[in-house]
Amino acid sequence: MDCLFCSIIEGKIPSKKLYEDDKILAFYDIQPQAPIHFLVIPKEHLDGADCITQANAEIVSYIFSKIPALAKEAGMTNGYRVVTNVLEDGGQSVRHLHFHVLGGGKLNVVFG
Ligand code: AMP
Ligand code: ZN
User: Fold this and answer.
1) Is 111 exposed, middle or buried (0-12, 13-18, 19+ CB in 10 A)?
2) What is the pLDDT of residue 109?
3) pLDDT at 111 (0 to 100)
Protein backbone atom coordinates (compact mmCIF):
# COMPACT_ATOMS: atom_id res chain seq x y z
CA MET A 1 0.00 0.00 0.00
CA ASP A 2 1.30 3.42 -0.98
CA CYS A 3 0.69 5.70 2.00
CA LEU A 4 2.78 8.80 2.71
CA PHE A 5 2.32 8.66 6.47
CA CYS A 6 3.07 4.91 6.62
CA SER A 7 6.31 5.75 4.78
CA ILE A 8 7.09 8.42 7.39
CA ILE A 9 6.41 5.89 10.18
CA GLU A 10 8.73 3.42 8.47
CA GLY A 11 11.42 6.12 8.18
CA LYS A 12 11.44 5.94 4.38
CA ILE A 13 10.52 9.63 4.28
CA PRO A 14 12.14 11.96 6.83
CA SER A 15 10.09 13.99 9.30
CA LYS A 16 10.75 16.40 12.13
CA LYS A 17 9.63 14.22 15.02
CA LEU A 18 8.09 15.59 18.19
CA TYR A 19 7.21 12.27 19.86
CA GLU A 20 7.13 8.58 19.08
CA ASP A 21 6.13 5.43 20.92
CA ASP A 22 4.93 1.99 19.89
CA LYS A 23 1.43 3.24 19.02
CA ILE A 24 1.73 6.79 17.68
CA LEU A 25 4.00 9.31 15.98
CA ALA A 26 3.83 13.10 16.32
CA PHE A 27 5.75 15.23 13.80
CA TYR A 28 5.70 18.79 12.56
CA ASP A 29 3.59 19.63 9.51
CA ILE A 30 5.71 20.46 6.47
CA GLN A 31 3.36 23.36 5.57
CA PRO A 32 2.39 24.90 8.90
CA GLN A 33 -1.00 26.62 9.03
CA ALA A 34 -0.27 28.22 12.42
CA PRO A 35 2.88 29.40 14.26
CA ILE A 36 3.13 25.87 15.70
CA HIS A 37 1.55 22.98 13.79
CA PHE A 38 2.15 19.29 14.31
CA LEU A 39 0.34 16.10 13.37
CA VAL A 40 -0.41 13.05 15.50
CA ILE A 41 -0.95 9.74 13.71
CA PRO A 42 -1.54 6.15 14.74
CA LYS A 43 1.16 3.73 13.61
CA GLU A 44 -1.53 1.31 12.56
CA HIS A 45 -2.97 2.55 9.27
CA LEU A 46 -6.56 3.78 9.42
CA ASP A 47 -7.90 5.72 6.43
CA GLY A 48 -9.46 8.55 8.40
CA ALA A 49 -11.86 9.60 11.15
CA ASP A 50 -14.71 8.11 9.09
CA CYS A 51 -13.18 4.67 9.76
CA ILE A 52 -13.27 4.88 13.55
CA THR A 53 -15.38 2.08 15.03
CA GLN A 54 -16.04 0.70 18.51
CA ALA A 55 -13.40 -1.93 17.72
CA ASN A 56 -10.55 0.49 16.89
CA ALA A 57 -11.51 3.65 18.82
CA GLU A 58 -9.04 3.06 21.64
CA ILE A 59 -6.22 4.64 19.63
CA VAL A 60 -8.22 7.87 19.42
CA SER A 61 -8.49 8.23 23.19
CA TYR A 62 -4.80 7.31 23.44
CA ILE A 63 -3.90 10.09 21.00
CA PHE A 64 -6.07 12.62 22.84
CA SER A 65 -4.53 11.60 26.17
CA LYS A 66 -1.08 12.44 24.75
CA ILE A 67 -1.93 15.74 23.03
CA PRO A 68 -1.86 18.05 26.12
CA ALA A 69 1.74 17.15 26.99
CA LEU A 70 2.80 17.26 23.32
CA ALA A 71 1.23 20.70 22.87
CA LYS A 72 3.08 21.92 25.94
CA GLU A 73 6.35 20.44 24.73
CA ALA A 74 5.87 22.10 21.33
CA GLY A 75 5.45 25.46 23.04
CA MET A 76 1.69 25.95 23.00
CA THR A 77 1.34 27.73 26.32
CA ASN A 78 -2.09 29.30 25.90
CA GLY A 79 -4.25 26.71 24.14
CA TYR A 80 -4.48 25.04 20.76
CA ARG A 81 -6.90 23.52 18.26
CA VAL A 82 -7.25 19.87 17.22
CA VAL A 83 -8.58 19.24 13.70
CA THR A 84 -9.14 16.16 11.58
CA ASN A 85 -10.19 16.48 7.94
CA VAL A 86 -12.27 13.74 6.31
CA LEU A 87 -12.37 12.90 2.60
CA GLU A 88 -12.62 15.39 -0.24
CA ASP A 89 -15.15 17.87 1.13
CA GLY A 90 -13.34 17.91 4.45
CA GLY A 91 -10.05 18.69 2.73
CA GLN A 92 -8.26 15.44 3.56
CA SER A 93 -5.15 15.18 1.37
CA VAL A 94 -3.46 12.24 3.13
CA ARG A 95 -5.66 9.19 3.61
CA HIS A 96 -4.11 8.03 6.89
CA LEU A 97 -5.88 9.16 10.07
CA HIS A 98 -4.18 12.24 11.49
CA PHE A 99 -4.99 14.95 13.97
CA HIS A 100 -3.66 18.44 13.32
CA VAL A 101 -2.65 20.29 16.48
CA LEU A 102 -2.43 24.04 15.81
CA GLY A 103 -1.36 26.80 18.15
CA GLY A 104 1.35 29.23 19.10
CA GLY A 105 -0.95 32.24 18.73
CA LYS A 106 -4.59 33.23 18.57
CA LEU A 107 -6.26 31.26 15.77
CA ASN A 108 -9.01 32.58 13.50
CA VAL A 109 -12.32 30.76 13.35
CA VAL A 110 -12.31 29.13 9.92
CA PHE A 111 -14.87 27.12 7.99
CA GLY A 112 -13.78 25.95 4.55
P1 AMP B 1 -4.83 16.87 5.43
O2 AMP B 1 -4.84 17.88 4.31
O3 AMP B 1 -5.81 17.16 6.54
O4 AMP B 1 -4.95 15.47 4.91
O5 AMP B 1 -3.42 17.01 6.14
C6 AMP B 1 -2.25 16.49 5.60
C7 AMP B 1 -1.15 17.34 6.11
O8 AMP B 1 0.06 16.65 5.91
C9 AMP B 1 -1.01 18.71 5.43
O10 AMP B 1 -1.16 19.74 6.39
C11 AMP B 1 0.39 18.66 4.83
O12 AMP B 1 1.07 19.90 4.92
C13 AMP B 1 1.06 17.60 5.67
N14 AMP B 1 2.16 16.91 5.03
C15 AMP B 1 2.23 16.41 3.77
N16 AMP B 1 3.42 15.81 3.56
C17 AMP B 1 4.13 15.94 4.70
C18 AMP B 1 5.44 15.54 5.10
N19 AMP B 1 6.27 14.86 4.29
N20 AMP B 1 5.85 15.85 6.36
C21 AMP B 1 5.03 16.53 7.19
N22 AMP B 1 3.79 16.92 6.88
C23 AMP B 1 3.34 16.65 5.65
ZN1 ZN C 1 -0.85 4.83 6.21
Assistant:
1) exposed
2) 82
3) 63
Counting ligand 1 atoms within 8 A of each CB, the residue from 27, 28, 29 with the most, and so the one to mutate, is 29
Instruction: Examine residue 19 and state whether it is found in any structural domain, yes or no.
Output: yes
* Structural domain for 60, as ranges: 4-103
70 belongs to a structural domain: yes
State yes or no: is 45 an active-site residue: no
CA atoms within 13 A on the CB side of 31: 1
Q: What is the CATH number of the domain that holds 58?
A: 3.30.428.10
The ligand whose atoms approach the alpha carbon of 41 most closely is 2
Q: Looking at ligand 1, which atom is closest to the CA of residue 33?
A: 10
CA of 30 relative to ligand 1 center, distance in Å: 6
What's the predicted TM-score (pTM) here? 0.97
Instruction: Provide the H-helix boundaries in the chain.
Output: 4-9, 58-74, 87-90
Taking CA atoms only, the protein residue closest to ligand 1 atom 18 is 30
Give residue-wise pLDDT tens across range 42-95. 999 999 999 999 999 999 999 999 999 999 999 999 999 999 999 999 999 999
